[in-house]
Amino acid sequence: xxxxxxxxxxxxxxxxxxxxxxxxxxxxxxxxxxxxxxxxxxxxxxxxxxxxxxxxxxxxxxxxxxxxxxxxxxxxxxxxxxxxxxxxxxxxxxxxxxxxxxxxxxxxxxxxxxxxxxxxxxxxxxxxxxxxxxxxxxxxxxxxxxxxxxxxxxxxxxxxxxxxxxxxxxxxxxxxxxxxxxxxxxxxxxxxxxxxxxxxxxxxxxxxxxxxxxxxxxxxxxxxxxxxxxxxxxxxxxxxxxxxxxxxxxxxxxxxxxxxxxxxxxxxxxxxxxxx
Length: 276
Prior knowledge:
Blueprint lengths: L22 E10 L2 E11 L4 E5 L6 H8 L7 E6 L2 E2 L4 H7 E4 L11 H11 L4 H14 L15 H13 L5 E5 L7 H16 L3 E6 L2 H7 L2 E6 L2 E7 H5 L5 H8 L22
Helix pairs in contact: 3-4
């Protein structure tokens, strides 16, 4: 059994005199009808870290991130980002965060450059500064050649990159990404990865959700594991992994994965012959 005694119950391990967490979640609940999507989460995410929120499909990751970023109101609980309550002080929170949500919706009849210029001005940046940052982001994210192309004609990878550029434009303290690499080709994924690593190296915080353990293990230094609306373990990657050979192995144990030999009952499957 992996030893995760320092990684349970969502504790960050920071002392009382340590730095304030980037995100503090207390007693967070969300129900949809009879279904409980998030079940009383308590979690502190440390500042200046690359954090993975991992779990199987339906674990509650997207619902949690939606509540943390102010996109979905919780039934109960409190969320603070950079020391500000998400629902009591939304303007202060939104000024400090960048969000790349699942099912990203963009102003598709604008070009990539027009979109960034518009978003920068919405964020209160002076026009010249917004345009300067847009030029730099378009270049770094390998979108300069497509900057005058309408977003509606962008590929999935290009949409993820222009969405990331829009989320980074105002230089947020905390960046929230929901499955940022899903549907992205390897070249675009590497570009996004380089930008995120540079961003966290500056002292900013990235929180991203994923169910791809290999990706999380290669990127993150802090992990929270979620299943059935609850946090199963949280802490530095090495603590959550414990004695398991990989994060994948630790994850399967933490979420109580069953049915690994379920294919044994499918003795009719394969072989190339139809059976009637």
